[in-house]
């Protein structure tokens, strides 16, 4: 009898390090923080990494160390995606920004910018990358969402709306990609020690009228049972595993790296 549902061919043992030699990856926001850690991890595993960032110096520095290629674009410009390579096997949608303000005071243009960078750009990048992935019968999309893709916090209307939208987009890509060997998942970090969070500590101090020293304990980590910031390398390790040979059955999922925040 013909086996209509074959097992994946020659899986390596579960202890084998992820080998991405021959694969190409594109990481947005690859010049800093989580994106930079992802670029390092994917390159270390053997992938050729396209480092996409609007910060030219940062993108070039990461590309130099990883042996990849820097692409300096502003992802708020929909035309920018057309300048990026279409033939990528792994797409990490990571670029993001934050703005903290109550809704009545939230600048509409800032709201729109956040949707463009964190929702429209990932959609356009998927749209561009998927035909190549489908042709190869393999692909990995990892969307760097947030605990704020699953939970809301005050003063973050644009960010929470964008991350919830990214969750939906990721699930649609998972369903459409499944027959083509393409998985799409979100990772959902709590607060990670990056320049973005350092900026938020300043903004939250102003919004709550408290000192910056108190923001970490009383605001950022208040809902996290694990009382420390997450490190970028811990996020990159999860992203790398999602790109490896043992994660093909995990798709349309959201992996909480939130110190137990969403368990409560
Ligand atoms: P970061 O500020 O350290 O890095 C973000 C990078 O994205 C920067 O290099 C920046 O230049 C780039 N970028 C921003 N806007 C861009 C644009 N329009 N075009 C091109 N590049 C652009 O931030 P990070 O903390 O590493 O965050 C990365 C992702 O992780 C974001 O999507 C963020 O929402 C998510 N995240 C961060 C945390 C955290 O605590 N740091 C928690 C959960 C989720």
TrEMBL record:
Which interval of the chain is the signal sequence?
Answer: none
Pfam families in the cross-refs: adh_short_C2
In its UniProt record, which GO terms are filed under biological process?
A: monocarboxylic acid metabolic process
Per its record, what are the GO molecular function terms?
Answer: 3-hydroxybutyrate dehydrogenase activity
Q: Which domain of life is it from?
A: Bacteria
Q: Which UniProt keywords apply?
A: Oxidoreductase
Q: Which family does it belong to?
A: Belongs to the short-chain dehydrogenases/reductases (SDR) family.
Query: What is the protein named?
Result: 3-hydroxybutyrate dehydrogenase
């Amino acid at each position: 009898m013909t086996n209509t549902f074959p097992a994946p061919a020659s899986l390596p043992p579960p202890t084998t390090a992820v080998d991405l030699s021959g694969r190409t990856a594109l990481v947005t926001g690859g010049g800093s923080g989580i994106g930079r850690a992802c670029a390092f991890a994917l390159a270390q595993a053997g992938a050729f990494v396209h480092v996409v960032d609007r910060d030219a110096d940062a993108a070039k520095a990461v590309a130099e160390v990883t042996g990849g290629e820097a692409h300096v674009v502003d992802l708020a410009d929909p035309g920018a995606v057309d300048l990026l390579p279409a033939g990528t096997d792994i797409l990490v949608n990571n670029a993001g920004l934050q703005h903290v303000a109550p809704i009545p005071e939230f600048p509409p243009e800032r709201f729109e910018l956040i949707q463009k960078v964190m929702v429209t750009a990932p959609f356009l990048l998927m749209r561009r990358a998927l035909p190549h992935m489908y042709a190869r019968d393999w692909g990995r999309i990892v969307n760097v969402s947030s605990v704020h893709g699953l939970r809301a916090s005050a003063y973050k209307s644009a960010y929470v709306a964008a991350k919830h939208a990214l969750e939906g987009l990721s699930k649609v890509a998972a369903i459409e990609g499944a027959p083509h060997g393409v998985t799409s998942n979100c990772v959902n970090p709590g607060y990670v020690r990056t320049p973005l969070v350092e900026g938020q500590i300043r903004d939250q101090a102003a919004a709550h009228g408290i000192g910056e020293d108190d923001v970490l304990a009383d605001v950022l980590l208040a809902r996290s049972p694990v009382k420390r910031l997450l490190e970028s390398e811990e996020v990159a390790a999860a992203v790398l595993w999602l790109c490896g040979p043992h994660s093909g059955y995990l798709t349309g999922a959201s992996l909480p790296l939130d110190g137990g925040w969403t368990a409560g």
